[in-house]
Amino acid sequence: MLTVNHVTGGYPGHEVLQDLSFDVKRGELLGIVGPNGSGKTTIFKVISGILKADKGEVLLKDKAISKYSAKQLAKVLAVLPQHAEHAFPYTVKETVSLGRYAHQTGWFQMWSERDEAVVQKTMEQTGIKAFQDNYVNELSGGERQRVFLAQALAQEPEILLLDEPTNHLDLSYQKELLDLLKKWTREQGLTVISIFHDLNLAGLYCDRLLLLEDGKVNMHHKPNEVLDEARIQSVYRTNIEKHPHPTVPKPQMLLLPEKQGEDLDDLVIDERFLMSNEEMIQLKAPFPLRTMSSGVVGSGTGWYNTFVNRHVEKSYSCSNHREEMEAYLKNHQIDPVETVGMMTAVCLEDVSYQLIEDDGVSVFVVVTAGVGNAVDASRSVEHVYEPMPGTINTWVFVNGSLTDEAFIQSIMTATEAKVKVMHDHHVKDAITGSFATGTSTDSILIAATQRGKHLPYAGTITVLGKLISQGIYMCTSEALNKYRKRVSE
């Protein structure tokens, strides 16, 4: 649909683009990204015909763009600049109607039924039909942006050029606009070329990205390839981390602010921050910890600074335990948004905790344990599911910086150590008679300070894995001994 061949050029006395080549396919949404001064706006102007290349050429449908008249070009290509302005007090409909100029013929430029239908359709598609009689200069920035988008779409172009189309739009309109553009590329074959400053929006919506650096193509590929962590750090000269989007298979780039003096890199999470009574065990960290957990509240991954293990009776029953737990926390002046909360029917005074240290790494482990509903996971099919309060609740606080891989390995290592405790303490599944691997409602959390020593792995024989294994085995064994002694009495 569009091909850029070895384009060099820019402005008088300043050659911005250096031997730039890429292509855009029909029905594709291409995002042009790069830091300020990389050439995004310059190539935008060259493609739209505003600037002429010093060397090379731009082909539009296999024909040099310089061979098109202004009216011919407008039938194929529409442009929405970043700062669309309007000097005259036109109404919304009048402004959108200007997009039909390229399709009108004859001396008197007669307005046709087709023109009217296209204008009405584009106003409806862009959500501006309700105020079509309002004057453009009376609208908000976001509304005005949609008016000029509708004007561009009224040209019925095959290619749409957009310079930061979401710049003046709030979140809902950003999503609506990009969803709409994506739909048009898929269903109508519209080709969209857009400049993006927001790498995350570009990664979410674009089929391919063109990354520019110092007027040259750094990479032209699918978003997941272009948005490589090391590549973006190098091109933008800033610290970022790449993470997958939580619901769609798209990359997201996260900025990393510089650490401040109050970040307390050397602070260790240990029993100083632990409080316990008959009703709950609570650990209040001095700053949010990155956490992966199976808590009643705060499950999944996130950042939390309060951790609660709440005692409930064995007869506890609730239709919505999450809502009930949130209400409980609020009643105790604990913010559920900042909290991982668990429940257990185990007597909390049987808790066991220990700080394990070695080779500059430390782990604080807290365990409550009972075996009233012990289960052999390999034969769980022989059980009937009954929701019960958690029995073996395990907390692992790591004083260090963990990778995603280390978080997952920490859970694996902790679970393996817990299973070994079950075996060594001869805990059996009451239904199957075989050795239990845990209980039916065990819960776990791994929380890391994300400060201090970098810990990429937590397998069983790594430095961190050894500490977790030792801490889990010791604390789970002690908690079970306390539990059994209490039960026997």
Descriptive key words:
489 residues; alpha/beta; L-amino peptidase D-ALA esterase/amidase; 8-stranded mixed sheet; 12 helices
A few lines on this structure:
The protein is α/β, with parallel strands linked by helices and 489 residues long. 29% of the residues lie in helices and 29% in strands. It folds into 2 domains: 254 residues, P-loop containing nucleotide triphosphate hydrolases (Rossmann fold), CATH 3.40.50.300; 221 residues, 4-Layer Sandwich (L-amino peptidase D-ALA esterase/amidase).
Structure notes:
The chain is α/β, with parallel strands linked by helices. The chain has 2 domains: 2-255, Rossmann fold (3-Layer(aba) Sandwich); 268-488, L-amino peptidase D-ALA esterase/amidase (4-Layer Sandwich), CATH 3.60.70. The chain has 12 helices and 24 strands. Strands 13, 14, 15, 16, 17, 18, 20 and 23 form an 8-stranded mixed beta sheet that branches. A hairpin with a 2-residue loop joins strand 9 (208-213) and strand 10 (216-221). It is elongated and about 100 Å long. 40% of the residues are buried. The model has no long low-confidence stretch (mean pLDDT 90).
Structural class: alpha/beta
Counting H and I runs of at least 4 residues, what is the number of helices?
Answer: 12
CATH superfamily heading of the largest domain: P-loop containing nucleotide triphosphate hydrolases
- Provide the helix percentage: 25-40%
In quaternary terms, these chains amount to single chain
Low-confidence stretches: none
What number of structural domains do the residues give?
A: 2
Instruction: Bin the strand percentage.
Output: 25-35%
Please summarize the sheet with the most strands.
8 strands, mixed
| Rg of Cα set | 31 Å
- Alpha carbon gap, first and last residue: 82 Å
At the third CATH level, what is the topology name of the largest domain?
Rossmann fold
